[in-house]
Amino acid sequence: MGEAAALVQQALQADPDHLQALALAGGIALESGRPQEARRLWQRVLDQVPPGTDLARNIQASMDKASAARP
Fold first, then answer.
1. Any idea which fold 2-68 has?
2. Averaged in consecutive runs of 10 residues, what is the pLDDT profile of the chain (71 residues)?
3. What angle (nearest 5°) sits at the alpha carbon of residue 44, between those of residues 2 and 62?
4. Per-residue pLDDT, 27
């Protein structure tokens, strides 16, 4: 996952609000044992998408999973 994480970070450096990169970075953070960081990144996605969309529901489900994880 190191190369993937580096590519996601490059994408975020180029565009800090890139939805896909933020979503992926949240997943990487959660898988790496950093649920608070995952929630922060996913909140940035939610702040940009209309409520009720598939993306918003999926991100909210991921945030709920991260909330259940230990920080």
1. 1.25.40
2. 88 95 95 93 96 94 84 59
3. 65
4. 94
Local structure of residue 17 (DSSP, 8 states):
T
Contact 45, 29 (CB under 8 A): no
Contact yes or no for 46/38 (Cβ under 8 A): no
Q: How far is CA 49 from CA 18, 30, 32, 46, 61, in A?
A: 11, 21, 25, 5, 15
CB neighbourhood size of 48 (10 A): 13
- Residue 25: CB partners within 8 Å, gap ≥ 6? 5, 8, 9, 12, 41
pLDDT of residue 65: 85
Residue with tokens 């993937």: 4
